[in-house]
């Protein structure tokens, strides 16, 4: 059997790195894409020899998408079993105090970057029977998260795109799935924006929400690719938010109203 392959954006750290390690351990060839050359080198060093190819790439660059995917499938005999749209950035703080440049950057990377990957990746996935587009959403896509408005909006968009393409691409034999992790314990959470001194980590923990390890998310990615659920929830926070959004929306609404008023 020809070796299966996965192409992972945001492969230089966090979820992307953990997923690369897991899939490589199961014999898959891995393509890693990231803007961070140092992160790519670090991830590649953690994988078995000759199991990975690394590409410095910005998901906002459509020409780079084509060039990079062409280069990767040239190493796999034309196979692309999974395209993992995972690259993303965090942004925290009150929307009214957030720079427009920051809003534009979050939307361009977290949502337009995913749309680019889906639109351009479709042709490659279609050539591989049983392939899958996997997108990283977030618990912020379950209920809008106070203090994380631009980020939350992009993740709602990723969730909607996943559902739409699950319908559109069924006839092409392409599965479309998302993982919906709780807030992940990575350096991404230490960033902030909008003139706020509060990091995303502080916003999340101030709201009483738990953080989830990247290894659990990688396991969920494997399950999502091989399962039939459109969305795979990961971690206690994601499951609790999904339950509250369905059965106790008033309670969740009150919690979000308190989030930015929590003591720093």
TrEMBL record:
Q: Which Pfam families match?
A: adh_short (PF00106)
Keyword Oxidoreductase attached = yes
For this protein, the record's InterPro entries field holds: NAD(P)-bd_dom_sf (IPR036291), SDR_fam (IPR002347)
- Which keywords has UniProt assigned to this entry? Oxidoreductase
Q: Which GO terms describe its molecular function?
A: oxidoreductase activity
Residues annotated as transmembrane: none
Task: Give the family per the record.
Answer: Belongs to the short-chain dehydrogenases/reductases (SDR) family.
Quote the PANTHER family the UniProt record gives: 3-OXOACYL-(ACYL-CARRIER-PROTEIN) REDUCTASE (AFU_ORTHOLOGUE AFUA_6G11210), SHORT-CHAIN DEHYDROGENASE_REDUCTASE FAMILY PROTEIN
Q: What is this protein called?
A: NADP-dependent 3-hydroxy acid dehydrogenase YdfG
Tell me the organism's taxonomic lineage. Bacteria, Pseudomonadati, Pseudomonadota, Alphaproteobacteria, Sphingomonadales
